[in-house]
Batch of 4 targets.
Target 1
Amino acid sequence: MKLPTARGSVSAAVIDLLGGRGGTLPADPVFDNDDDLHLTLFVCYELAYRGWDGVDDLWEWDPELLRVRAAAERRFEATVTELVGPPEPVDPDTVPERLAKIVEEDDGPSLSGYLRGRATHEQFREFVTHRSIYQLREADPHTFAIPRLGGKAKAALVEIQADEYGGGELPRMHQELFKQTMRWFGLDTTYGAYVDAAGAPTLAVNNVMSLFALRRRWRGAMVGHLAAYEMTSTLPNRAYGNGLRRLGGDDTATAYYDEHVEADAVHEQIAAYDLCGSFAAAEPELAGDVLFGARAALKIDELWARSVLEAWDAGESSLLHSVV
């Protein structure tokens, strides 16, 4: 993946340094805007995934780069906490039921409903472009939690992730299925091809996963985040599939969404009870973090969906620039 174009002073310093153009990182990072913040985080986090073209892997653990990343994380954590409230102690036995209530009370805008019944071909294509930032590495952030869990919770997470990775069969990997949808829209399936076109809300969706994934102290939030995704997946994906069929999408184009309708109906119960319920029982002091992670997942996704719909309602593109 090629290093993206900077969106502020801090992201510029980080990208210049990684790109071999010299410069120094700010001693006390002050982010110019949300795009500067989230691009900085995304660039730093990607070093823990597949990395950037021409960037030495040693940068992943560079102390100065980690210092800047930590400053960005503190600001992002403060924002997330302001949005959903801090983690609070809860009875671990109530975690599955509380998760269900959080999902039930989620009142974010229905992007899936719009895509099912109203979206144009170009709008659906924009949606797929946004989602490609995550979908082409789907499951990877949550997989970081596997070595941080034990017992029944670990087994449950492995069961979910095994499905995400197609049971070890490349064509069935969800990352690969999503490429089929992208090809139908004539999009570039290269990993990270559209980072430059994705605004701060899209990057934030990805960054909150990486924040939880790469910090052991947030392992409870990580499993809660996954549970929220699994528990809110079936109906939206059915809507996405039907919306794509309305636009002429064939079985190959809709396979990604159709697969999630079936798989996540099963994953919902595994995530709530076997994963999060077992985790909370094993580490009751982190039960509140599970709910925090679920609330964060839904709220950050809500803000992203709202930004997309507001752009479309205004007759504008939801991307920073058009994509070929």
Note: The two ends are 17 Å apart (CA to CA).
Target 2
Amino acid sequence: MKNFSTVGARLLALALLSGSTAASAQTPQSSQAACAFRPNAPDQHVVTRGDTLWDISGTFLEKPWCWPQVWGMNRDEIANPHWIYPGQIVYFDRAAGRLRLANQVGAGNDGSGQGTFKLSPQLRTEGLGKDAVKSIPAGAIEPFLTQPLIIEADELKNAPRIIATAENHVFIGKDDKAYVRGNLNGATSFQVFRPGKPLLDPVTKKTVGTEAFYLGTLKLQREAAPGSDVHTFIVASAKEEMGVGDQLMQMPPTPMQNYVPHPPEAKVDARVLAIYNGVTHAGQNQVVSINRGKLDGLDIGAVLQLYHKGQTVRDPGASRGWHNLGNPQVKLPDEEVGSLFIFRVFKHISYGLIMQVTEPVVVGDVAKTPE
């Protein structure tokens, strides 16, 4: 159960509370067909601490990301999810082709040993969220929610920047002083970034952005005096050493931590731009960036299929007239290797978490709308 990552947990009790049916999901027939149950799907699963909804759904479904459909939920219900908890039971209603949530309240008398299931429309509110089944494992994506930053065009062109340090230190760390020049727009807490290498589109070979390196945070100690635009800051936290020339961005709001998987609204055909930390291959639970974003139809929770792009090879038989195909250059089919869950979206670039990968992912691999 731990070899899958997950998505969006909070929705299960709500399906029962609202009395949703297969019709309420309003799911196209083709999507229903894509959300097939595994031939060896169990009758039930007891939710345990450490489970994720992707884990649980992967026990029952061929494609774990399409779990909202087999819970019979519509978009309004998905937008207002509730939590499920360890100890609750997910069981497979084979007659209805649906998953349901229940509590086991006693042992049965039929000799099956399966016990009695009681559907629970009441929502658990005590300690809401404390013990709940989580979305994607927090440790896998939390640093990417607010720290690594995609810079598109000239977004940091006019950002405040460190122009000097106390006692002219080359680098500064926690509790050190920094002098910053620029418009703070009333903010007092900032993150510090250093622009990194350009991100090149694997198809066009053009620069589409830059991934900045997160260095730490600064807290305003004293705003610039009248007639000056130099502010005094103290380093509140330091992940890496920072110094003159590094740039500031206002601390973002705490991001929403619940994610609901769904296919993109529009057809997406993307390529892997980069693998974080500069490695050449990425595996399960690693983060990559792709060359499509919100202006291309992606949003948080979108799921894409990952493929190794098929090579173009020469068919020696074609040049001799075999098969009457003529062109000796042939592109091999793209080979599916896993899925990608989008959790942070910029204008033309997005971060995705690799899920269920069967082979390492490399820059240039294809990420597109599930078929």
Note: The first strand starts at residue 44 and ends at 46.
Target 3
Amino acid sequence: MGVGNGGHIIAGLAGANPDYEVRLLTGRTDIWDSRKITIQRPGKMGGGDIVGNVDVVGSDPQDVLPGSDVILWCGPVCATPSAFKKIAPTVQAMRRDEGRSAYVGTLFAQGCTHLLAKSTLGADTPYFALQNIPWLCTTIEPGKVARIVGNKHHVRVATTSNASYTWTKKFLEPCINAQNGFKGAELHNMPDFSSIVLNPANQIIHPARMWGRFEDWDMKTPFQPGTLGSLYGDFDDKSAEALVGLDSELQSIRHGLNEACPELDLTSVVPLAERIINQYDDQIADKSSMRSIMATNQAYSMAQFPIVEVDGGVIPNHKHRVVQDDIPHGLVPLKDVASQLSFDVPWIDKIILWHQELMGKQYLIDGKLTGADMAECTSPTILGGTSLANVGFVEPPITPTSDHIV
């Protein structure tokens, strides 16, 4: 469901396994006419291309989802609320008509998607979320060819109390590790969702880099094509300073939340540099500093700034997921938790304020999350999680505090 870069990869890997049937729920049915997806992989992984079969393609949930064991959302974080709302009637009908509940999961989650899943899909729906996408990847030819740029050694997954981690691991690992010699990520268990909300990953990496590169830009004047540098390969000192600041504040939130709610498991919320080295290890040439870790990670090497063409050149694309995911579903939820802990987070505040001007949004006003666009955020208090423990669990039962699900 939702076939972006990661959706292409998992469709191809799962489709190469004869034990799996792949069904794609997508608005772009026209690009899947061949019903096959070729996955290219880095040479050092060994082996050639992987070719997977796609069995069903459709745009209507009722035509695609019934009979499924797992419904996996592979689209951008910012589209998760609308995607869940779209499938909710079919998920509920499947539970009624089939006498069982399909597992619903997200290939990559940020914010309180576990609270969103409960409020949208129903408390009876087993839900799981991966803390990180298993590979860095890109689409080469939509609907036909995608490439794995780098793979992680392990990825953690959280499940609701009515979903089995053991079953989830058994089902998913063959879908992210193809049968013909491709060794991808192992799935490790997380007892709750707090480590997803506080994940030291995209939600601090992308905002730090965008701010570091464009903070002095007037948000109007176009750049000449080819002059922006790469997203990570040209990672500079200013971006690194911001990233270190955000990472430090995230760790402070982690320690405060751990003290306030010792029942939550935050052991995987390690400092960012440690997390990247653990997951990519020998793919990083220079591990001596935050800047060098970002700039010399081979898995990051192909990433570019999201841009849009305008008269006179190009400008940063504020509608891209690098922005739309990581502020309302990343830094805003972190700020929410910090506020509940009565923590000051000046770097998070600074980066939110700059991005919301870029986006034409209002989240943070005078240091408080009272902006007009807060309803679109997967933030704990917006989704009814007014107890800090709700950062990790969906119990006690919660009720959304707004009709934000659009």
Note: The chain has two domains: 5-190, 199-391.
Target 4
Amino acid sequence: MRLPAPRGPVTAALFEELTAHPHDLPARLASPFTGDGPALHDDDLQLALFVCYELHYQGFTDVDDGWEWNPSLLGLRQGAERRFERHLRALVPRPAPVTDVPGELARLATADEGPSLARFLQREATLEQFREFVIHRSIYHLKEADPHTWGIPRLSGPSKAALVEIQADEYGGGRLELMHAELFRGAMRGLELDDTYGAYLDAVPAITLAVNNLMSFLGLHRRRRGALLGHLAAFEMTSSLPNRRYSSGLARLGADRHTRRFYDEHVQADAVHEQLAAHDLCGGLVAEHPELAADVLFGASCGLALDRLFTEHLMGCWGRSATSLNAVAALR
């Protein structure tokens, strides 16, 4: 993957610097995100964050690996994270600690309301709309599980064992053809989409990047490990039924079993992961570290809130018969 096209003055200046040998960033990039605009829909901020985070994953072919831990780049990222976090906390006030964390996670998952993207994709979506949905999700699913794997070395005891068990399933038990990222590639090919890692980065809007940036934001900081596990739990606890609907929608549109296999796999896997994530993963963490209970619920609430905003974006665009992507040309 090469650097994407910039989306504003900060990414334009930053990407120019990143194509050079690692060095101290110029003063104009020391604190470029000090304003208080709508961070969750700010393309310039979300793309800058995404690129900074991607250096910890597979990186970019036109960016020297030495940038990964460059102090001045980390300073820029920290400023962007502060603004991102301020808006997350405005969207989701920090929950009060509770004694029954698994029970509260279940309440959050069942209380999650809003326009049903899964139901629309199951019953009404056109093939082009379903392809758009898959393009949005490819930003995460082509590296599925990686952001949450950052949590493994930061845990111990039952919560660590539970996370390893969940992640082992995500990675196909060590079998390449069963890795969830590989199964998603099959779905993309079945829909005649480019399954190259990061192929559609230029096509997705800020809110899609924010959904993905949240996972990296939580995963790359040890002090946010509770929120990371809460995010994963909410993800697993709200996944099984939607994936059943996605598969049903693809069948309605004529997709074969191979194209639907990614979603069919998640119907079964996430039903198992749901209980494991709530009780062994998050319950185990809070039993060992009671002070992290509110963090767990905050991470879960943030994940659910950003997913609602993502759904509202797609449903709003489709309700106007418009594309949800940055450019129609992205559907190639």
Note: The radius of gyration is 19 Å.
